Amino acid sequence: MLSNGRLCGSSGGKPVRRERREHRNRSAKNAENRETGPQKTQKHRTSLSAYDFHSNPQRGRVCSLSFYVRLVTDVSIQDFFHPAAAVDGPALATRARQRLAASLTRFAPAPTGRLHIGHVVNAVFVWGLTRAIGGRVLLRIEDHDRQRCRPEFEEALLDDLDWLGFEPDVFPTAAFRRGLCDGRQSDRDAVYRQTLEPLIAASLVYACDCTRRQMDSAAYSGRCRARGLPLADGVGWRVRMDAGLERFDDVRLGPQSQTPADQCGDVLIRDRVGNWTYQWSAATDDTLQSISVVIRGEDLLASTGRQIALARLLGRSAPATFLHHPLVVKSPTQKVSKSDGDTGIGDLRAAGWTAERVIGHAAWLAGLQPIDTFLEPSELPRLFSR
Ligand SMILES: [Zn+2]
Question: Is residue 162 within 8 Å of residue 122, measured between CB atoms?
């Protein structure tokens, strides 16, 4: 739990307004410092190492990218997490631009918990890169797992996105609040059934009643392939994966090759309690919604080959372009998860963090900027431009 992750001494009341006022005060103070040279203030334990201010005419106030260097005074998530190795954002944008004339990407959280700092890192890549190359962002709520997802988490997620200032071009948050929405996977059961019909007709789908205990390796053995079990509730549904190599060129990581049939065997697309799996719902949505670039964390890199294979079965002639970004890590072996309550955006808000502070911090954790500073969503494309 964050005991005190706030900035600028704001505690309760109206932290955003107070923080901005103090931001202005501090800007004036440090403008003085520029005349006399940097001085370490008593209030902050770390020195302010840079003073190159610039004006932002759009906001009509002085802002600084380099001023808020390590301003967090007490215990904060900085004490727990490590920034990723430096990421060359402009180089990523150049490579993405070469491949994508008019790009559409997606931000696709699952409402199984509150939005956390790892989601914001993903959002920084999604909105920053997409805006830098003139593309659009679609919001998708991946609530295909009806047992783990909860409406209150979706509501909190939409609130957090609005608060952060990330605005989707397709399916804005208001579209979800109105009710049924094609961006919400639980509203697309009929779509996932429909896209499966041609595969069933081609005998590429079969039922599987194997328990976890019967699956002794990470890759499914194909035990039920020829058993002829009916496709019904109470059993899993799988799609046959042909042996073969899937090659793709990750925007950040370069050429990759994977063998889905060896890695996972026949892909589970619907589980025994009737949930469409991530693999099927994401492949269907990315195909039908014409998502041209998929930006997601490195933890999903290994499943890209099967996503490409499923998209091909769905009739996609050319796969999406993939970009896998670094994950926020607690340590070299531990990534941030939803169970880490102290990384929740709600906790940071309660502790007095502003949206600009959270986004700037996420961009630093992502390796996209060398210093930990304030950033607004509209400033993110700069991280991907020379
Ligand atoms: Zn089976």
Answer: no
Cα four-point dihedral sign 60, 64, 39, 47: positive
Report the CATH number at residue 219. 3.40.50.620
Please tell me whether residues 62 and 93 are part of one structural domain: no
Bridge pairing between strands 334-335 and 329-331: antiparallel
Looking at the DSSP assignment, which residues form a beta bridge with residue 63?
54
Q: Do 121 and 69 share a domain, yes or no?
A: no
Task: Yes or no: say if 312 and 241 are a contact pair by the CB < 8 Å rule.
Answer: no
379 in a structural domain: no
Do the Cβ atoms of 204 and 250 come closer than 8 Å? no
CA 233 – ligand 1 centroid, Å: 14
> Could you report the per-residue pLDDT of 349-377, keeping only the tens digit for each?
999 999 999 999 999 999 999 999 999 99
Check whether residue 35 and residue 150 sit in a common domain. no
Q: Model confidence over 278-314: pLDDT tens digits? A: 999 999 999 999 999 999 999 999 999 999 999 999 9
- Split into its structural domains, the chain has a count of 2
Question: 271 C-alpha vs ligand 1 centroid, how far in Å?
Answer: 11
Residue-range definition of the domain harbouring residue 9: 1-75
Q: How far is the CA of 1 from the centre of ligand 1 (A)?
A: 42
Q: How far is the CA of 231 from the centre of ligand 1 (A)?
A: 12
CB-based contacts of 194, cutoff 8 Å, min separation 6: none
